[in-house]
Amino acid sequence: MRQSDKDQLCKLFNEKHWKAPWDAQTLIVRVRQDTSKFSKHLQALLSADQLKSRYEVVAEAIHEVYEQGCTVRNKKAAQSRHLFAGLYRTEDVFSGTVEYFVYPKQPRKRQLKQIEVQHEDNFYPLIEERPGWYEPMEWLIGENELGKGAKYRVHASEILDDLILPQRDFWILISDPQNAESAAYASWGTPQLGETFILLCQRELLSQLELLQSEHLLKWNRQWQGDHWIELHECMVISPAWHGVFIENLALKDALQPSIHLSVSFSGGLRVPSLGAWLVDHAPQVTIFGFYPQAELKITRLAANSEIIFEKSQDTNIPIVVDFPTPGEYLVEATYAGESSERLIQIVDWDKLSITEPRHREMLSIGDEQICGSVIAHSGK
Fold first, then answer.
1. pTM of the complete model
2. Which end of the chain is more exposed for a tag (fewer CB within 10 A), N or C?
């Protein structure tokens, strides 16, 4: 983003007296509602056609300007004193009980260690879970926090004041990108084409979603209703024809409207989550999701001498079996009508497996004994 673009954004923020701790998605919707005074370059950057392929990148860039407080040019920008959180959802497979947790995001370009968050009278350390995220906080959040947002005091930090769960009227929750077999859903990002997700939203948004459903843009299979919030399960975007449809909640439409027409997906096989790879002879099936009936699929083994192992026209939205002959990295590409999508996949041999200590142990206490899997330990009471 150009410096002149940042200056124009700062001018808007100051004129509107915007100081609320909004997250990136909330902020970009408000910015897009008032672009008349922006330059043609910035207006084009925020237009629907330009924005659709890089929505999250542009939103984060604008949010970074907002959080830095619009300092004078050539002076060092102030660092945000807020830490923002997403939403983490779990469901008990036996009882069906759904629970939500605060899911802290790691700030960009900053390393934070030994930070604690206060909830009521207790203090909880921030522990890195994966790139970009800390482990979910241990306390549950309910409909009140979902509707109004929440702010938690940060301790043991000279650069942060609080952890903020933003006030939102909907959340899009996708399955774990690193472990699709887990029962966890969270606000990890935008769903991929062909990917089902959970849409958690306030009850009053249901009529707008039903409009999208009636226009055959969005589908879902079942829903759960609370007092003020509902969950739509197995949601999927099923059409690219969104331009002639309008709903009141612009943020909801922006979040759901597809930005691409093709994507590559892997499913099944024996996956090694710690390596982000699959075991040799147990590779996943490959699916090209798209709004076209067919696409060209090409798979190349990346090595000193690159070798194309598969090249063929394939029907979209149908999984196919591909033979990845040897361990290594492969580039999977789908193309049609000038649009393309690609993903890397790694195949590893069995000798790459290693025993990993569990990060969390679920203990069952029976009398003086504690049981964890096949391990029985005396509690010493």
1. 0.82
2. C
